[in-house]
Amino acid sequence: ADKYAHDALGLYQKNKDEVGVAKSYTVLGDIYLNNNLIEDALLYYQQAIDIQKKLGDDEALAYLYNSLGIAYYYQNAIKEALRNFETAQKMAKGRSVKEEVSALNSIGSCYRRLGRPDTAIVFFRQALAILNTGKDDKLLAKTYQNIGLLEYERGNYEEAVSAYQQAEALNQKLNDVRGRAIVLNNIGNVYYAWGKFQQAASYYQQALQIFENMGFANGIASAYTNLGSTFIKLRDFNTAREYLEKALSERLKLGNKREIANAYLNLANLYSQINNEQNTKTYGDNWEKEILKHKTSSQVIQQYKVGLDFTEKALEIAKQLDDKRLIASCLNNIGTIYSLAGIADKALNFYQQALKINREIDNQADVVVNLLAIGIIYSYNGNYTQAQQYFNQSLELARRLQKTETEKDIYYNLSVMFENMGNCTKALSYFKQYASLKDTLLNKETFRQIAELKTKYETEKKQREIELLNKDKKLKENQIRQQRMAIIFFIVLTLVISALIVLLVRQNEQRKRTNKALAEKNELITEQKKEITDSIQYASRIQKAVLPPQEVIRNYFSDYFILYLPRDIVSGDFYFVTSYGSKIVVAAADCTGHGVPGAFMSMLGMALLQEILGKMEHFKADNILNELRQLVVRSLHQSQGSYTTRDGMDMALYILDSNTHQLSFSGANNPLIIVRDQEIFELKADKMPIGVYEKMDQPFTEKTFEVKMGDMLYTFSDGYQDQFGGPEGKKFMSKRFKELLLSISSLSCKDQHEKLEQAFLEWKGDGPQIDDVLVVGVRV
Fold this sequence. Notes:
Layout: H1 2-14, H2 18-34, H3 38-55, H4 58-74, H5 78-92, H6 97-113, H7 117-131, H8 137-154, H9 157-173, H10 177-194, H11 197-214, H12 217-233, H13 237-254, H14 257-283, H15 287-294, H16 297-303, H17 305-321, H18 324-340, H19 344-360, H20 364-380, H21 384-400, H22 404-421, H23 424-456, H24 460-471, H25 477-514, H26 522-546, H27 550-553, E1 560-565, E2 573-580, E3 583-591, H28 595-615, H29 621-635, E4 648-657, E5 662-668, E6 672-676, E7 679-683, E8 690-691, E9 703-706, E10 712-716, E11 724-725, E12 730-731, H30 734-744, H31 749-764, E13 773-779
Antiparallel strand pairs: 1-13, 2-3, 3-4, 4-5, 4-8, 5-9, 6-7, 6-10, 10-13, 11-12
């Protein structure tokens, strides 16, 4: 590109074609900007500007000033970037919608970086106002992305997701695959900040799949990085390390030094988190205060040496690039390690260097963190006057930037400082402010969770329940989970009532046939029946929405099928598929009953499985079933002595490690069938349900199996085997079912689904279906 652009430049200069010369300088500027050679790019853009000023081409000048602004933005010279973007906007106004909107977006981004979100949103909205007339969907998508990023940084996560989803819809409309993947990655970032790490991982994996299909190396590296950070939060440090090492490998291939440095920093963070986890287990939650009672400063530094080495590698690159923002991040990390080791003078020196740089580049968000860290060190060393000065500066800036979480931490440290000074009045005052902000943040998160449930289960009865829940503002965190379950119970209770009404309608219809005098009421009853059936149909849509969608399952398996045949409109059977790193969890469950009662149990089962897997660190199939049994018994208030209710579920659950091909299985009455090369292997289940049982002290057992490529894995409920039919009206039976699976196992999963459904319908004939049917088949 550089060669051809210079060839063109030479020809234009030879012909004294100033328009062509200016275009050539512009193209050269773009080439060097895209290759991160900022100084050269600035030089070419400035030469193009000098010519375009003589020619009076304002539209071309708008593009050039926008480009200059981007170059300065990359250098973290935000104020200089802002000046050029403002010039570009003036040049473009009334002449070029594209350049005007680009400038407005960039101005908003500058104010976002300068810690002025309220000003930033004004410019983004100006861009929207111009674009909502349908002039440029690509720029509209970009604007929504900017709004999403701004709301994400402000902590308005619902608004951020909404904006990103609008951007994604536009990218789909434009068939912009890369743009869509970037937005999915950004939505993952929102859920990560929101603390919803499973959702974050799901979006990151969707983005990764698209990036890999495109062969877009930068995107792949970014998704690896984000997945690594997410698995750190999920406490799966081995998986996190795999992703972060892959990210570093990709960055080294690409050769972008800035991104290589960031990859080193991410690995440094991982090893610091591993060490923090070890210290928590050894010394408790307050290990930062306890560790120096058990270790010398040198021993602490040695423990964190791997992370420190990675940070120093990143710092070396950052200094080569003169990337001040990155330098400050590295210095802050090093300061934190020396602070943990109790080497206050070194920690203070690194924090002060980071603070000085962040102030130079006007990086207000990190200035807050630096000020707080310095205040903590002065407070710890008894220099309370200095500590208070830094705490107050940090507090003032945190309020202005709306950093509520940081503001809370500052109040806490001020309270500790005044307590150490013996000033109990001020210590209590600041602690009250800390507690008040903590409650505010907790309530904000509580209301968000309730709003999600509102959207998901929007019915008249559910709305009444949420209003009741909102009246009680002093609920503890564990009550929030009970609220979620209560709403599900309430919906299913509505369905039970609906089913009873259906029964009454049927009785009325029977009486109508024997009593012609009721003929005039037939139309009314039919109408009522339709309304109730519609209600249960709506419940069926809610139930199906909770089941894993096909596009998610396709992320884990390329060849699979799910035969799902509810006996009634809603089902007591359910399937569950999710992943955590290299481990894929698959379950097929058969709940007590069918129809509405079964649906109640199935929704409870899915909710409890999500809860268990969300907090589990080491995945073993038997551990999951043991935990699930305890939660089912507790949720249904079952008593082993009285056996007031025996509701529960049978389940076959396995965990497949895609890296090692090791399979962990545990079953409650339902087995796992594996077919390999026309040979059946059966991993038997424990003969007990998930629910109250005579032998509650007997744990579920784990069976392991090493799978091979091409193996077929089958999990199922008992509905298929128990169906009456055939020439003699007998059950299908387990033996015939296994023979059928063996006979079709070599077919594609799509064909297997068709064969199974056809065989079932032929066996059932005109007779009624006696139970819900579920068969899940997966090819390794």
